[in-house]
Amino acid sequence: DSKIIQHLYDINEGSTFGELALIRNMVRNFTVICKGDSEFLSLSKGEFNSILRKDYEDSWNKRLDFFQKSVYFEKMSEDQKRQMADMSEIREYSNNRVIHGNVPGLTHHVYFIRAGKCEIVKKVGFVRCVSPFLRPDLILQGSKSDKADPKKFLNKPYGRRLRRLTPEDHFLTVLTLTAGEYFGVGEDLTDTSIIAKGKVEIISLNAVTFSLNYTVIQSMRDNRKNLIPSTEELARRFEKNRKWMEYKRKVIDDIVKWRKKTNCATYQDVPEAMLKEPSIPLDLINYKMFH
After folding, report:
1. What pLDDT, on a 0 to 100 scale, did the predictor assign at position 98?
2. What is the pLDDT of residue 290?
3. pTM for the full model?
4. Which are the contacts of 4, defined by CB distance < 8 A and separation ≥ 6?
5. Where does this protein have coiled-coil stretches (predicted)?
6. In b/e form, how buried is each residue of 150-185, taking b as 16+ CB within 10 angstroms?
7. FRET label pair with 64: which of 115, 119, 145, 180, CA 20 to 30 Å apart?
8. What is the pLDDT of residue 95?
């Protein structure tokens, strides 16, 4: 008789295994092999039942409930959804924690937001162009602009000593994901991270679950195909946002400056939407030319 051996997943520090065998009184049909020196905390069935069983079953029921209600798994059988609950776990992340990112394709897990929201943030490389006669500017690295060409920009005959080109990375928010949405299905997340905004509950599902249901994860991946814009599009959005912040700052200054009653104008007179903190470097918004 031949045996088929399949690598399911790696278990890291803080993870557990063997719960299902204890709860369902079944023989384990997998083998755990250490990849290096390891330490384990082992519980007997009695200890597990008295200490952890209720919490584990509550968590398992929450995961099953999520998969049963998810529109992405409507065509899957109840048995398959129970298997997904078996092969997943709930993880909690605090505000601004990086959950997943900087990977080019499918990894060992697919992530679902059970509660809270996350932001997709992409690192975009710019070149800061500083000239004595123009407002500082950020040009996308690799663009064909004359400003981004060191020979053309730095060797102009006027103000040569004051000209500078400096590489500069910015982290741009692409969009916000909310409860019920997912990530990690194979989309290109190079230089891109998923970050928790506030407290977030994530269901981490082992991707091996889809080995017999590849069309499901393929469909989920197709739905995410155009989720993350190109760096060129993000650079255009960045510049559009800069112009909007520049306009808002001008409006605020005009309101305070030209209020008819002397010394009565304050920032309380400015609409709240105009006072939100800019995500654009201030020297790209407030610029006065040298005289």
Report:
1. 93
2. 38
3. 0.75
4. none
5. none
6. eeebeeeeeeeeebebeeeebebebeebeeebbbbb
7. 119
8. 95
Q: What is the pLDDT of residue 180?
A: 95
Give the residue extent of every domain in the chain.
230-291
Which phi and psi (to 5°) does residue 215 adopt? -65, -30
User: How far is 216 from 136, CA to CA, in rounded Å?
Assistant: 48
Residue 147 corresponds to which tokens in the numbers above? Answer: 């400003």
Per-residue confidence (pLDDT) for residue 81, from 0 to 100: 93
Amino acid occupying residue 63: R
Helices 53-69, 78-86: inter-axial angle, 10-degree rounding: 130
Q: Give me the DSSP letters along the chain.
A: ------------TT----HHHHHTT---------SS--------HHHHHHHTHHHHHHHHHHHHHHHHH-GGGTTS-HHHHHHHHHTEEEEEE-TT-EEEES-SS--SEEEEEEEEEEEEEEEEEEEEEEETTEEEEEEETT---GGG-HHHHHT-SSSGGG-EEEEEEEEEEEEEE-TT-EE-SS---TTEEEEEEEEEEEEEEEGGGGGG-HHHHHHHHHHTTTSS--HHHHHHHHHHHHHHHHHHHHHHHHHHHS-SSTTT--GGGS-GGGGSPPSS-GGGTS-----
Q: Distance between CA atoms of 269 and 252, rounded to whole angstroms? A: 9
Residue 274 is predicted with a pLDDT of 45
Instruction: Write down the pLDDT at residue 145.
Output: 67
What digits encode the pLDDT tens for the residues 27-68? Answer: 777 788 888 898 988 888 888 888 888 999 999 999 999 999
